[in-house]
Amino acid sequence: MSKSMSFEEPIIKLRQKIEELRELAKSADVDMSEEIRTLEERLHQLELKIYSNMEPWDRVQVARNPERPTTLDYIEKIFTDFIELHGDRCFGNDEAIVGGIAFFDGQPVTVIGHQRGKATKENIRRNFGMPHPEGYRKALRLMKQAEKFRRPIICFIDTKGAYPGKAAEERGQSEAIARNLFEMAGLKVPVICVVIGEGGSGGALALGVTNRIYMLENSTYSVISPEGAASILWKDAALAKQAAEAMKITAQDLKKMGIIDEIIPEVTGGAHRDPETQANILKQYLKKGLDELSAMSEEEIIRDRYEKFRKIGDFIEESV
Q1: What DSSP line would sit under 105-121, residue for residue?
Q2: DSSP letter (8 states) at residue 160
Q3: Tens-digit pLDDT profile for residues 54-110
Q4: Strands (E), 178-223
Q5: 316 domain residue, yes or no
Q6: Are residues 94 and 208 in the same domain?
Q7: Do 45 and 164 belong together in one domain?
Q8: Can you give the residue range of the structural domain that contains 25?
Q9: I want to staple 195 with a disulfide (CB 3.0 to 4.6 A). Which of 119, 128, 199, 253 is the partner?
Q10: 314 contact partners, CB below 8 Å, separation of at least 6
Q11: How does pLDDT run across 275-297, given as a tens digit for each residue?
Q12: Domain co-membership, 211 together with 275
């Protein structure tokens, strides 16, 4: 058990104890149902207590859980007839971003999102969910295609940030991100974004210029990781927990500041505990957002997006 996940340690130990009792009851042919029921009730109460009092750093750890549902997981559970499209028509195909056409409750939509892996081999293949410029150019190509055929766009954000390597910079990483920000601002179709895990820096914002921004309850959205901020501010990445608290990166903080529109509740313990139920909850928020935006004209959609970002950072001066 790593120190970073220590807040969940009592829950994990109790789950292990329950499993041990089940195995013992099965192998020894002994009725231990009452003892197991008692421990399960204790586990339920413990989960409610711990998960309802999470600190920002705790939420960072849940957002990074390797079993947390990814973009492709949500696409499989929420959409139908998904056809993945590849390549930026310029350099190549970046597997850190996936996208394509699908149906949402019978309505054709374009779905785009960061894609990380759940195991080492897949993470290497997906570059740990950190896109190269061709990934952002692929995303923009699909967005412009969606605009041409008047399809709403749904984006899933889940990245530590854009890949900072030499090759990415040589191929125009910053220009690709800037181009996405510029083009997304003027899209004439509804755009909805959901932060499903980590939303880091410009790598996240390149898919985040939208009409509606939702965040899963235990996701994060920030200009830099807590470790990166701690390294800059205090020259010590070990102070990441302190940085997470100061940065206001949780959904709860961002909702209070008006940066996001809605917090999507997660199942107890995090989205990875019950992906099926979590997908159904997320689907209801997407449906609500699409219903609101579909009633707008093209001009109203662009104006709505402009006003959304124009209001971020508003403040009122009070005379002393």
Answers
A1: TTEEEEEEEE---SSHH
A2: S
A3: 889 989 989 998 899 999 999 999 999 999 999 999 999 999 999 999 999 999 999
A4: 191-200, 212-216, 220-222
A5: no
A6: yes
A7: no
A8: 6-53
A9: 199
A10: 258
A11: 999 999 999 999 999 999 999 99
A12: yes
